[in-house]
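TL;DR need structure tokens for one chain.
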Amino acid sequence: MKKYEIMYIVRDGLDEESRKAEVEKIHAVLTTNGATITNVNEWGLRDLAYEINDQAKGYYVVLKVTAPTIAIDEFNRLGLINPNMLRHITVVDPE
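>> reply
TL;DR here they are.
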């Protein structure tokens, strides 16, 4: 299994409870497919460099995970169709 770093942005319009539930749901996609989340760094609400889907702010989360390819593929697939996730990126962690 490889190590990955994942950053995703959750849309601003969610209240605190809904946002936490959405973050847990996103993390569950990884863990149910065999990934281990080693570090979660929530950057919080920040201004976006440009508007995405009429959103000027987003809640940033950075993860470090050890995962099989299938977990990353499923995360990317569901990230594209999740209306609460504005953007996401997954890179192989060089460490």
